[in-house]
Amino acid sequence: MAPQPEIIVAAFEQSGIIPVFYHDDADVCCEVLQACYDAGLRVFEFTSRGENARKNFSILRDKKLVKMPDLYLGIGTIKNAADAAVYTGLGADFIVSPVTDPATGAYCKTENILWIPGCMTPTEISIAEKNDAKLVKLFPGNVLGPAYVKAIKPLFPQLKFMPTGGVEPTSASMDAWFDAGVVCVGMGSNLLSKALIENKDWATLRENIVQTFAFLKPKP
Questions:
Q1: 5-214 under CATH 3.30.930.10, yes or no
Q2: What is the pLDDT of residues 184-216, one digit of tens each?
Q3: H/E/C letters for each residue in the chain?
Q4: What is the per-residue pLDDT across 52-64, written as a single tens digit (0 to 9) for each?
Q5: Cβ atoms within 10 A of the Cβ of 62, count?
Q6: Domain limits of the chain?
Q7: Are 171 and 3 in contact (CB under 8 A)?
Q8: Which residue of 18, 110, 127, 153 has the lowest C-beta tally within 10 Å?
Q9: How far does the chain reach from its first CA to its final CA, in angstroms?
Q10: d(CA 85, CA 107)
């Protein structure tokens, strides 16, 4: 059974950075997960984007259960309730969608698992709110930008927001998003360098994540 949605939302807020990742090679997936964990992150979104997604997710889940009991491992790129059900059965802690699909939201509510829908417009955000979403993924973040968050937040004071896409691992980018009012940011290749992964430079990958994580620390 997945943890209570409120617990996961709190973990997202505490982590601040949510790595978003997929790779066909299970060993690479495990190394990237380990680098994120060793760097201090405790939330990880694996994405269902390739033919080995289910198999590799199961391998990550087993690694998490044995070596990372305090990590929350969720699945992203879920566009329908059927896929949400599959990954709930595989032990996902939360479900992230690139779209706002009420049927997926209804399924997740029935199973009491956190559903994070992807929204771009005020209408989509409203639909997400009506379907009991607590945390909304703003996607694509590079199109919307921090100014969009500032404009939209007063309309939805009960919702929390997480941009994915367009967030850079720099102090300026992170400050702009968090100052606008987001509670966390989803980061893919901007955080998890493809070059470092191809070279299997796990130590440098970990160091880069630590440096990015440091941008979230309160400034004196």
A1: no
A2: 999 999 999 999 999 999 999 999 999 999 998
A3: CCCCHHHHHHHHHHHCEEEEECCCCHHHHHHHHHHHHHCCCCEEEEECCCCCHHHHHHHHHHHHHHHCCCCEEEEECCCCHHHHHHHHHCCCCEEECCCCCHHHHHHHHHHCCEEECEECCHHHHHHHHHCCCCEEEECCHHHHCHHHHHHHHHHCCCCEEEEECCCCCCHHHHHHHHHHCCCCEEECCCCCCHHHHHCCCHHHHHHHHHHHHHCCCCCC
A4: 999 999 999 999 9
A5: 12
A6: 5-214
A7: no
A8: 110
A9: 41
A10: 8
pTM: 0.96
Residue type, 156: F
Amino acid (one-letter) located at 163 = P
Fill in the amino acid letter for 8: I
Query: Longest Cα pair distance anywhere in the chain, in angstroms?
Result: 48
